[in-house]
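I keep forgetting this: the sequence line spells out the residues, with the fold written below as integer tokens. I include a record here:
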Amino acid sequence: MLYDADCGFCRWSLALLLALDRRRRLRPLALESADADALLSDLTPAQRAASWHLISPQRRRWSAGAAAPPLLALLPGGRLPAAALAGAPRLTERAYRWVADHRSQLSRALPSSTKERARRRIARRE
């Protein structure tokens, strides 16, 4: 799972997903890393930064709202929500875009201590 390490809301969201990932199926990877560059080499820097990305072990990639259903399907109890989101791709994309467009404001609403705990959880899994 590729995320923006410079975004507090992105780190907080990822840490929440990692907490739910009891089977440890997700591997966090900062978009700013060399490994991310290799995995996203076909995208421009702007395309890479425009959203988060989920990449399967077989190298299939989903980005932005389209990544939500396969991501949720990896989590315990996530199959039903994944199916619901997969059934409404335009709505899922619009919801993702709204969050992405407002992530700075959402990040400011999170306490610094919460973002620090998220950073530590991610660091333990990287």
